[in-house]
Amino acid sequence: MNKTFIIIQREFLSRVKKKTFLLSTILLPILIFGLYGLIIYFSVKGEDNIRVAIVDSKGQLEGKLQSDPSLEFSFLKQADKASLEQDLKDKKYSGYIIMPDSLGKRDSLQYHSRSNVGLMTQGKIERSINKALEKNSLQQMLAPGVTLSQVDSNKTSIDLKIEKSDGKAGNAGFATALGFICGFLIYIVLFIYGSMVMRGVMEEKTNRIAEVMVSSVKPYQLMIGKIVGIGAVGLVQFLIWGVLMMSLQLLLPVIFPEMLDQAGTAGAMAAAGGGKASMVSTILNNMQSVNMAMIIFLFIVYFLGGYLLYSSLFAAVGSAVNEDPQDAQQLMLPITMPIIFAFVIMTQAINNPDGGLAIFGSLFPLTSPIVMMARIPYGVPAWQLILSIALLIGGFLGTTWLAAKIYRTGILMYGKKVTWKELLKWARA
C-alpha cells in the first residue's frame, strides 16, 4: 500500500508542477470570464440603432409598427427613389421599404440598404411588419366600436409552473440546462482524463520505464497508482476552477456596474407587476429551488466513479499497444462507444427523465455517470441513486480486476500488434 501511495504521489506531483497545468487551470476560468464579460459588455452597450424608412402612401402600417431602442421606423407619405438613396448615402436611414398599394398575404417586400443585413436584423424587421399587417387585418374584422388596444388588453401570457405529486416545484428549463451541463462535463472528463491515463501508460511502456517500476511494485499497484494520481489531478483542477469561477462571477457587477442598474430596474418592474424578473434573478431563484449542495456532491461522486471505471480500461489499452497511435484508436473503439451511447441517452433523458431508457441509462454502470447527472436536477428517487452508485462501484471493481489482468501481461510485451481477441485471452488467464 505504501508503494501504491508513492506512485500516486509521483503521478500527482509530476503533473501538478508542470507549467501547462498551472496555465490551463488558471487561464481557462479567466478566459471564460473574459468571454462572458465581453458578451455582457456588448449586450449592455447594445447594437447600432437600425433606422428604417417606410414609404406608405396608403397608411397601411403607420401607427401599427412599434419602434424600440434597436429598431426605429420612420413613415413617409411620398418619396422618390433618388432621394431615398441619397438619404442612405447620408446615413439618415439604414434602409427603406416602399409599400405597394395592395399587399397580399404571400407577397414580398424589398428592403433597400447600402450595407449587408444580418439574419437577426432581417428577422426582426419581418416580424415587426408581419405583426403590424396582422393588426391591420384584425382591425378590419373587428366589430364597430372595438379598438385594437382593447383586443391587446385582453391578451394573456400564462407561465406554466410544474409541481409534482410530492409537492416539489420544478422548472423544466432550468433542470434541462443544469442536467445537460452536468452530463456534458462528465462526458468530457471521461474522454480527457481517460485518454491522459492511456497516454501516460503508453509513454512509460515506450520509454521502458515500466520495466524498472515493475521490478519494485506489482503491475496492479502501478496501474492503481497511475489511475488515482491522475484522477486526483482532475479533481483538484475542478475544485480550483469552481473557486475561480465563483470569485470571478462576484467581480462582474464591479466591472460592469450597468448590470446592477438593469437588475434593479427589472426587480422594480417585477415587484410592480409591470414585467418579469431578469434572467439573472430567474436563474438565482431556480438555483435556490434545487439542492445545489447535493448536486455538487453527486457530481463529484459520479465524476470519480466514471473516471475510475473508464480509466482502468484506458490503462489496459495503453499497456497493450506500442508506439503506433492507430493501434490505440482501434482498441479504444469498444471503450468510447458506451460513452457516446451514454451521451445519446442523456439527450433523451433531459426530455423524459422518468422514461424507461433514462432509468436504464442511469443505472447501467457504463452510462450512469453521464445519464444520472442529467436526471438529478429533475429529482431522482433515493433508491435509484443508491442502486446506481452501488452498481457503479461494482462496475469499477469489475473493470479494474479485468484491466489489471490485461495490464500485467501487456505492460511488458513489445513488438507485437495486439487484437481484442488477444486481450480476452489475457483477461481469462
Describe the structure.
It is a single chain. This protein has two domains: 289 residues, no CATH class; 91 residues, 3-Layer(aba) Sandwich (D-Maltodextrin-Binding Protein, domain 2), CATH 3.40.190.10. It has 16 helices and six strands. About 4% of the residues have low confidence. The protein starts with a helix and ends with a helix. The strands form two sheets. The protein has a four-stranded mixed beta sheet with strand order 2-1-3-4, with no helix packed on it. Strands 5-6 form a two-stranded antiparallel ribbon. The chain is mostly helical and 429 residues long. Strand 5 and strand 6 form a beta hairpin. Helix 8 packs across helix 11, helix 11 runs parallel beside helix 15 and helix 12 packs parallel to helix 14.
Average pLDDT, rounded to a whole number, is: 75
Helix content: 55-70%
Order of adjacent strands in the largest pleated sheet: 2-1-3-4
**Unreliable residue stretches:** 262-280
Structural class: mainly alpha
Q: Whole-number radius of gyration? A: 31 Å
How far the N terminus sits from the C terminus, by CA atoms, comes to: 25 Å
| Envelope shape | elongated
Total of DSSP H or I helical runs spanning 4+ residues: 16
Summarize the biggest pleated sheet.
Answer: 4 strands, mixed
- How many strands? 6
Strand content: 5-15%
Tell me the domain tally.
Answer: 2
Order of secondary-structure elements:
HHEEHEEHHEEHHHHHHHHHHH
